[in-house]
Amino acid sequence: MKKMINNSVLAGLAPSTKNLLQTVSGLVAVYIIITIISATGGLSYSMSNLLAGLCIYSIVAVGLNLCVGFLGELSLGHAGFMSVGAFVSASITHALSASISSDGLRFLLALIVGTLAAALAGFLIGIPVLRLNGDYLAIVTLAFGEIIKGLLNVFYLGKDDAGLHFSFVTENASTLGDGGKMIINGAKGIMGTPHVTTFTIGMALLLICLVVVTFLVNSRTGRAIQAIRDNRIAAESVGINITHFKMVGFVISAGIAGVAGVLYAHYLSTITASKFDFNMSILILVFVVLGGLGNFRGSIVAAVVLTLLPEMLRGLSNYRMLIYSILLIVLMLFNWAPAVLEWRARIMPKLSVFGSRKKKEDA
Amino acid sequence: MSFISYLIAGISLGSIYAIMALGYTMVYGIAKMLNFAHGDVIMIGSYVVFYAVNSFGWNPYLSILASVAVCTLLGITIEKVAYKPLRRAASLAVLITAIGVSYFLQNIALLLFGSDSKSFPDVLGLPALVLFHGSLKIPGTTIFTIIACIIIMLGLMTFVRKTKAGQAMLAVSEDKDAAMLMGVNVNNTISLTFAIGSGLAAIAGVLLCSQYHVLNPYTGALPGIKAFTAAVFGGIGSIPGAFVGGLLLGIIEDLSSAYISSQLANAIVFAVLIIVLLVKPTGLFGKVTREKV
């Protein structure tokens, strides 16, 4: 009976909206349960500290999934957009530490500007990048990620009574006037950013990003983006402006990575440019591919599981990353190898998503 | 004179990139995949030489041969276990699996050999060439590296053009299914490509470590990425392209770290790559493929 009512309420909605509602209610339920557990002291310190981190990785995985899963463009430089968001927002937090006293207001401002800065970086990088195809696009995004990292590594920003001063390559602490303070210290990065990111903020932003992305995918723009992914030439021939729609998707994806960067900067009090390296981009890509291309819920699950996995394997000390890598290979083979998929379709036609799809194709 | 010595150092670094890039480009041309584990095969190969020379006191050239053998076997094993089951799967799946293999090799090395950096001796021990009454000194390893790279490149080109196995490789890279219908054993051809690429990786590893003297489980990672960049730079899938791309990349990196900033050298290398790809989207020697509707 209950199921029927549920169905009738949801019947009028698009399947992806239904999907979104399920995901959102699931996340809210998880949030409530975890808050209750942590209020009763059932959570270890390291675990409760990790919760915000899980939200951050989930957000950036959702953002990258928009780029890889829906736009169909492999980006190996999303850590670069994260670092733009992180560095811009942390600089704002430090620069305005005297003028705005409210931590919340300052964070909100830092969040908005950091996100916009990452989106702008996405736009600037998108102009040349989106002209290329396939693996060349991937390698150029990788290159941009490395360039952003390289530039931030030699970037110095200081503030004194006269305003902000920046320079490349050389430290300019001595040239600062009265009340001078360094904000970005080259390779040493930004230190002492207030710890504002909490599980609640992380979860709220994750929900917002999820809603934004789902609405985008269901909109006219989203359908155009998927048409381009599925067949670029056919999409072009029905009058879809390829560059425009690719750019929209790419910029939003970069902006979401920026949100995660802002949270990251205010989660760890010290950030350095070298943290946002190629390995970070790859880590995010692993979340997306393992969770399923175009499946935002899967990205979140994969981000959470793969972030928790090394933590849970911590007892195995030296062997944990080895086990992690083996699990990664095995999971990839299990999920993608045609021979394994066939076997899974035979063994468990009802349990396996791939199996049921296969059956439909056969019918 | 300092410019010439920087240039020679750049050519030498570029030759190492070129040897690695040859491995990337051949595997990419035939299996259409980025073998991210290539850089880590280089690292394993270097450890083999390190222990063969230091612990067992083998002759350096003999240990290089041993390292080539180990890496060739390793390459074939990786291909059979991790990549072959995914041959008909999406390319992204293969990419992530390759990343998994790369993590696996790094962590195996971490467990077996420890995380501390080993100081790798100049195993070749060749005398330096002194020119212009001592104002220009070229280390023997540098000369060896450059000559080795040229020989390998010419050898590979001859192999691909003149031998039956090489022709099979060309056929598979052109059209896998058509090659199979013509009686080419696609599986063996792909294995052979991985074997050659990994064998070259062993040589590249020894040359890299002999010049920079540092060896740890992460030694191969960044040079691996740069060598792949070099392969893209020259037009991926093209053997002369990988050679030229590697050389140019090495020269640009060395000169920019000498004259501009050593910290910005990597950023400059990648900026040049982007400019080249914007002007010529398939790389310097890449073939333009027409899109069919």
What is the structure about, briefly put?
The complex is a heterodimer of chains A (about 375) and B (about 290). Chain A is mainly alpha-helical.
Average pLDDT taken over every residue of chain A: 81
**Which CATH C-level class of chain B is it?**
Mainly Alpha
Order of helices and strands of chain B: HHHHEEEHHHHEHHH
Look up the CATH topology of chain B: ABC transporter involved in vitamin B12 uptake, BtuC
Report the principal-axis shape of chain A. Answer: globular
Main sheet of chain A, how many strands, which sense, barrel?
A: 3 strands, antiparallel
CATH class category name of chain A? Mainly Alpha
Estimate what percentage of residues of chain A fall within beta strands.
under 5%
Structural class of chain B, by secondary structure, is mainly alpha
- What proportion of the residues of chain A is helical, as a percent range? 55-70%
**What is the CA-CA span between the terminal residues of chain B?**
56 Å
> What is the SS-derived class of chain A?
mainly alpha
The main sheet of chain A orders its strands as: 2-1-3
Task: Indicate the radius of gyration of chain A in whole angstroms.
Answer: 22 Å
* Termini separation of chain A: 31 Å
